[in-house]
Amino acid sequence: MRRMALKKVTFRRVPLKRVQIRKEELRKGIFIIPSLFTCGNMSFGILSIFSSISGHFIPAAWFLIGALACDIIDGRIARMTKTTSEFGLQLDSLSDLVSFGVAPAVMMYMLVLNTMGKIGVAIAVLFVLCSALRLARFNVLAHSGEVNKHFMGLPTPASAGVIISFVLSYQLLGPEEYALNVKTIPVLMTLMPTFFKVMPIVIVVLSFLMVSNIPYLSFKRLKLSKVRTIELFALVIVLIILIVVYPQNIIFIIFSVYAASGLLLYVPQIILKKKRQAKPEKVENSDM
Question: How many CB atoms lie within 10 A of CB 61?
Fold first, then answer.
């Protein structure tokens, strides 16, 4: 009877070990999935650099659109499956530096800045350096464990998005055959040559916005299933329809408005704070 009991105990322990091994293997596999998208992000960035050097700016811009998609997906998957890790954070930052720092700088240098000599080189280098500083600060804040509803400074993907969408819209003015098959917003297209002339200034402004302390809205924890975001969900549907009809132009407007939103919301707050600080001084003076 004792032998039979021992056999039953050993028989019960074997399946438990197998279950534990399978769980560990499954968890390792889940960690791989977001990392694959992160590597896809970097791969698209490298392909964009090669295309820009060859003078193929439209493929270069679309490669970076693919990098943006991978950057969104890997973060969503990591949060949904609860597989965020220090390794994934560092790999994501390196990928973002390549795709949203180096690749847009190379693209702008080859398209706009190469005629400006050393000043053009300095502007391109400034954009890359500010991207690196922005990502390094983001890693430090993420490592501290603080949960913020806003980004501190313009995110590097959004900064690159302004440049990417500008290239896609500006190239529609060319004689390429694809331009005939894409609908455009006439008012915006008439302003594109002006945007091209001031693009060096725009790149400098984007660079400083990335390293600024201006808060920007974060969409990472946004859940459209909640009742309070029904209006926002309706807005997203409208934006999707507009993107389908006017793809390049609407993407350019979205990124430009987001980049400007930080300044538009931050400057009035500074003015109000100064007014509040000035009021007590006036009261003290009146008491004297």
Answer: 26
- Convert the pLDDT of each residue in 172-221 to its tens digit: 766 554 444 567 788 888 888 888 899 999 999 999 999 998 888 876 65
DSSP-assigned letter for residue 98 = I
Relative orientation angle of helices 57-80 and 156-170, to the nearest 10 degrees: 150
**Rounded to an integer, what distance in angstroms lies between the CA atom of residue 165 and that of residue 169?**
6
User: For 115-263, where are the E strands, in sequence order?
Assistant: 150-152, 215-217
List pLDDT tens digits, range 6-59.
Answer: 444 444 554 544 544 455 444 555 578 888 899 999 999 999 999 999 999 989
Residue 219 to residues 76, 184, 213, Cα–Cα distance (Å):
11, 28, 18
Phi, psi of 96 (to 5 degrees): -65, -35
> Residue 168 half-sphere exposure, CB side, CA atoms within 13 Å?
26
